[in-house]
User: What shape does this take?
Amino acid sequence: MESTTATIEFAPNPAPATAFIYRFWRGAIRLWFALSFRKIRALHEDRLIGPDPALLIVSRPESFYDALILVAGFARQVHCLIPARLAKGLVPTILARGLGMISYTPENRPAAIETCRALLAEKAVVVTFVAPGSANSSGGCALAADAASMALNAVGSQSGLVGLELFPVYLFVPVGHTHTREVLIDIDQPEIAKDLISSAVGSEQDRAQEVARQLEDRCQENSFRLQPSALSDFLADLEDALRDGLKEEFESQPGGKQKLEGFELSRFVVHWAEQMNYLHPGLLVSLREMLAAWREASRRGALHRLETEGAGAWLNTPLGRAVVLLETVLGFPLAIYGLVNHLVPVTILYWTGLLKKATDRDKFTTWLWRGLVILGSYILEVIFVARLWGRRGAGYYLPSLPVSGLYLWRYTWLLPHQSRIAFLSMNRAVETAGSTRLRKDFLHEIYQALDLHAEMLGLPH
Assistant: This one.
């Protein structure tokens, strides 16, 4: 007996949401972002205060999450154009309907564009996203094709929309373990749709491609993008990380004799980085932070390796390391005893400035005063002990003062010069493993982002 599963399909173009329902769901989304410790800040939102229609071209690939960010970030009601595949499931479908989103399938895409034109005629705010990719087969640009089609339809069919403004919108969405948790929305200076269309010549398809090209140029001016020098540095560091990963992989293979001469980044990787720089700068910032953490770990590991290699012969033998570590542990109580005995003279020397290495003072006079302060404190401490435990106790305590002081001096030298080096030598393998893990995590994120980019472009990977 065969069982069948019923599938509920919702209309791709839901009816516009009422103001009350929209505000209710927008409030719920804002509360959800607040509970998830995401603060949303809209820059230059005053450019959307007027009641005029506006078409927002978001310099980001289509995303239901980003659509929710825009809904929560703007005071005006916005209608987001999204593919129907992004609103699958009960909760996304309810949100899309309640927020007046316009979902479409490839078959009814022209109808969705017409719905957007009708909303613009009612002086609404419509949001469309861009699609990453290269030039299409006809030589045009597909990045802002939807926005170009809406502008042509709106201005061409409704004389009342001759003043329609197209606003490039830039999003900075933190990802991963980046330091900032704030989501930023920047509304750039608008383009007048009529001016854009009037500057385009040729057939309707040619004009649409020209308008899309001009809008793409504006999208690439993302205010959150990395500067060219920073992007070049990122690509150079990425090449080093990939080279190190391949080198380790080749060395781990038995009998591997592959060489890395002439290795460089492919054009696909460079194109991905250039597009992500204006489509998803938050991703590049996160990757740069991961890359910086790996390079810093590698730098510390190299410095520690140089320190251990130049430490001396004592570090090369297990006996030498064991003696240093044993003294570090067993000498700690004696060093604490010496520190307690010398708290008073050290405090006096610190307050009087005699602990500082001053070049304008006579060394003999400085050391004479230091000795007098220490000797005076010894006398006072011995008198204090004699009053507590008698002359016999003071007799035992007196020789311990200079001995504990000398060992405290010795211990303060031992910790940075030998104990620390011995610990670094023992921790070297752990430090190397940590640096390798950071590099592998970074490369994993890179490969994942490249696979996603290839999938969006329809390329095999």
Summary: The radius of gyration is 35 Å. The chain has three domains: 19-219, 228-307+435-457, 310-426.
